[in-house]
Amino acid sequence: MGGIEAFVGDGALKEKPERVVGLFYRYNLTSSLWISADYRFIGNPGYNANRGPVNIFSVRAHAEF
Description:
Helix content: under 10%
Strand order of the largest sheet: 1-2-3
Mean pLDDT: 85
């Protein structure tokens, strides 16, 4: 429970459920090229109530040839 081995933790894990929410918006530039803006919210990352929340923003591009 929160040791310093392979599991995420620092030895004093206060366990709570991890919450993840993701949103994205995709925009077609052409029929074979589009971009998307993404947002992720992670509450209690690694099931640890003493860490987080974490906000992740990203942009993706997709092209088909």
